[in-house]
From TrEMBL:
SMART domains: PKS_ER. Residues 10-326 form the Enoyl reductase (ER) domain. PANTHER family: QUINONE OXIDOREDUCTASE PIG3-RELATED, QUINONE OXIDOREDUCTASE-RELATED. This is Quinone oxidoreductase. Keywords: NADP, Oxidoreductase. It comes from the Bacteria. Signal peptide: none annotated.
Length: 329
């Protein structure tokens, strides 16, 4: 089978295309013949070695990159009773999806509804399940809740805005361009504006009558996090769920006190997908919303194993609006 592996950490040059034997599933595992893999920032971070010392994501070289996919069950390991050969399935947070086949622990795998295409299922898992826990468990979106969503035209951002609007929350959105802001408005943001060198915080306060929002979702980090503190209400919540713009390494907790006794969390998806029932519940809710039309995912591009570097470059250059996919078998 074809696969893209890394043996060392670095830029796009560390990705090597290889022909490998089709692996065999061990006990509790399934072999999936992949139709589609999601392409995510996390794949770039994996190549860069961002998880080299992580306990949450213990992915080490050599490895096949990619950690999200959809396809059909091609073989079952001992003890797997919940799936049959040929079942249409999807998963995320298991490395090895830039390949024709992947081995995945059965508890991480969810069935894909008959009416859902496999490309949409692949696009929905990682970003959909992330947006689900951010909106429900952390933001507690509902009527009366106000939130600020940064990078609102990104894969997670677009879903967070839609979930917020659907659940009755008021969502303010930031982006790096007017074209991206328009995407956020179309997804249901009450207002969308540019980061404007941190002045998004003043704009957010104006829009909330000086109060600030209940919760800020910040996947960017260093360029925005301190101003995100200024955008939150007293005793509000800052959800720092990524650092695509670089890490904040010098935050003194007293800054949270000065900003109004704020709560700051750095959550990870793995801790919100810690058993099969939770994964199935979150995926079923996201799939149902996609099928009834109340959520939608824009596929930003379809790539192959020969041109996947172009997708990584577009992600890094902030040219991607929506979700890129990798086509396999
Ligand atoms: N904690 C969790 O559970 C969790 C789960 C999934 C992903 N994440 C993290 O969330 C972040 C976003 O992931 P994603 O998959 O949603 O990506 P994405 O959809 O591709 O969104 C990335 C967006 O980030 C914005 N951005 C700001 N600064 C950037 C920079 N220096 N370089 C590139 N993009 C920048 C861009 O929007 P603008 O141009 O509008 O700024 C870009 O569209 C990543 O850090 C990822 O690791 C965290």
């Amino acid at each position: 089978m074809r696969a893209i592996q890394i043996d060392r950490y670095g830029g796009p040059e560390v990705m090597i295309r290889r022909d490998l034997p089709i692996p065999r599933p061990g006990p509790g595992e399934v072999l999936i013949r992949l139709a589609w893999s999601g392409i995510n920032f996390m794949d770039i971070h994996t190549c860069q070695g961002k998880y080299a010392g992580s306990r949450t994501y213990p992915v080490r070289v050599p490895t096949t990159i990619g950690m999200e996919g959809a396809g059909t069950v091609a073989a079952l390991g001992d003890g797997v009773t919940e799936f049959q050969l040929g079942d249409r399935v999807a998963y995320c947070l298991s490395w090895g999806s830039y390949a024709d086949y992947a081995i995945v622990a059965a508890w991480r795998v969810v069935p894909v509804p008959e009416a859902m295409s496999l490309d949409l299922a692949a696009a929905a898992m990682f970003h959909g399940l992330t947006a689900h826990y951010l909106a429900h468990d952390l933001g507690q979106f509902g009527p009366g809740v106000t939130a600020l969503v940064h990078s609102a035209s990104g894969g997670i951002g677009q879903l967070l805005v839609q979930l917020g609007a659907r659940l009755g929350a008021t969502i303010y959105a930031t982006t790096s361009s007017e074209a991206k802001a328009e995407v956020a408005r179309q997804r249901g943001a009450a207002a969308a504006f540019l980061y404007d060198e941190g002045r998004f915080a003043d704009r957010t306060r104006e829009l909330t009558g000086g109060r600030g929002v209940d919760v800020v979702f910040d996947p960017i980090g260093r360029p925005t996090l301190r101003d995100s503190l200024r955008a939150a209400r007293t005793k509000g919540l800052i959800v720092s769920f990524g650092s695509v713009g670089g890490s904040v390494k010098d935050l003194d907790p007293i800054e949270l006190g000065e900003a109004g006794s704020l709560f700051l969390t750095r959550p990870r998806l793995a801790d919100h997908l810690d058993d099969a029932a939770t994964i199935r519940r979150r995926a079923a809710e996201i799939f149902a919303a996609l099928l009834d039309g109340s959520l939608s995912i824009a596929i930003a591009g379809r790539y192959t194993l020969d041109d996947v570097e172009q997708a990584h470059a577009a992600l890094e250059d902030r040219r991607m609006i929506g979700k890129p996919l990798l086509q396999l078998s």
